[in-house]
Amino acid sequence: MITIKEAKTKKELTDYIKFPFALYKNNPYWVPPIIADELETFDKTKNPAFENAEAYFYLAYKNNEIVGRIAAIVNWQEVNTQQKKKVRFGWFDVIDDINVTKALLEKVYELGRKNALEYVEGPMGFSNLDKVGVLTEGFNELGTMVTWYNHPYYAQHFETLGYETEKEYIESKFPFSNVRPEHFEKAQEVIKKRYQLTALNFKKTEEVMPYVDKMFDLFNTSYANLSSFVAVSDVQKEYFKKKYLNFINPEYIKFVVDKDGNLVAFAIVMPSFSEALQKAKGKLFPFGFYHLLKARKHSKDVAFYLIGVHPEYQKKGVHAVIFNEYYTTFKEKGIENCIRTPELADNHAIHAIWKNFDPKITCRRKTFKKNLEQYIFNPRITS
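Predicted structure:
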């Protein structure tokens, strides 16, 4: 018998967060989150995502043992503003038992039906700044702090249950030695002169702060046309500032402004925290914080997290300005590998800007979709 229970208390949510620690114990590719950080993400009083979304967290039990978890999510901004009648699911982990997967997904269907929604999609988080997709290739690649890792059978479960691919994402990597400055050095000078642009570099986090709101505004503008995009609200801006900015080396944040000081492009790169998070084992204390700080200062691998260019400047070569600034910074720091975090497979414009670096695809992931009317309730499952 499979029993589904909603995780509500701090202890239950901690159990929910810790389940993957058991599922992936001794797996060299899984990167654990910080438990306290996950708890804050799920706290309705702290995470501003709950202003426009509701979420319920469920654990599956078999023989009194946790065997799976799932989050059922409705992003009301997406439903009401974009008219996408979608119920999301995320933070999905399960043993290799398709009946457990079915039981967990039934809770998602219930939420969708309750709100007259038409289809389910996942795995995905509250917004575009959360993790997304189930891994379908690259199971022997070290994960990142901004991606979910999973066993190969996850996708098989979805396909067996009649899900279809909704979106595909790719991740790739290239050695910094592949970067040839001649591909962008002269071009960026021409582009800066032609459009009267200036690159901004930073040495201290406080120097970045006056531009962060403008960066989120540009993020909203530059990503607006991508599928399932949900804009970042003003309250979320403040939340993300506090949560993430101190993790990012200020010299890894690059801005490009026009002659009037308007932000036209930005990029955020993070040092790789993967090995540090594995050593931290979900805890900041007593040693986790030390490992993260060490990685922040000394990691030779970097992950490109976000790049945004204002629509008026897209396809005008502004990325050459950004690459030129990063080339100088990475050379000084002795960076060895550049990692590209998930990008939509059909976002050909973003893929084109990397072509000269000869990146190799390391991972593929998908979100899966199913119409709710295809679902038949299974009375054998108890809640």
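Summary: The mean pLDDT is 93.
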